[in-house]
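Appendix B, example 12.
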Amino acid sequence: MSTISTERPVRRLFGIPVDAVTMGEVVDAADRAIAGRRSLRIGVINAAKVVNMRRDPELNQAVLSSDLILADGMSVVWASRLLRRPLPERVAGIDLMMHLLALADRRGYRVYCLGATDEVIGRVAEIIRHDYPNLQLVGARNGYFRPDEEEAIVGQIAAAQPDILLVAMTSPKKEQFQARWARQLQVPLCHGVGGSFDVLAGKVHRAPQAWQRLGLEWLYRVLQEPRRMWKRYLVTNVMFIGMLVREALARRT
């Protein structure tokens, strides 16, 4: 259950209970969870993840076990409106990360950053210390480790006693990591931020606001890394449209 409200609005889309909340409501819920030392594990979905959840039972279970599931992609917001289950707005994972860092700076919260390469995580640590001097950065390590190293890493994170854990690993690794170790981590607020550390470090450029409003961040990413990304987005976007059409037709019957 979410810590936002026992009566929070939820929109069921593609079999996924998506929380119909605003960015401000999520940040307030995070603040209350940390202050009350209650667990709030955040999951986010976009078109690609909706498709992959249908194909990957472990990813599906990990996302559904989150305390809060948010619409990270504009395609999900648009789908909610087409299906007459409207969400109030998009809550992008990277934007939420920045709001959480600002919250931690205001409150003096403890933050642990896990993920990306040594080069990127080092740069991220520098930026956070400079831009958010009042938060306590209690740990930062790369996201490349073997399965047999996980337990020791979880122990290190728990020992650091962070209030916020930001996990910048690819899907489904980040979702499964958080679901598998949630109890042992003992962190009030866990948020999987994907490639957000690469953006914060300046390694990857985020799409301009106009592209974001049009739901074209995926295309901007493809233009930056065409060889690696075009096939992934082509396949998942087509499959997502097919799922949307089927769901729309099923709701009419």
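The chain has a mean pLDDT of 93. The longest strand covers residues 40-45.
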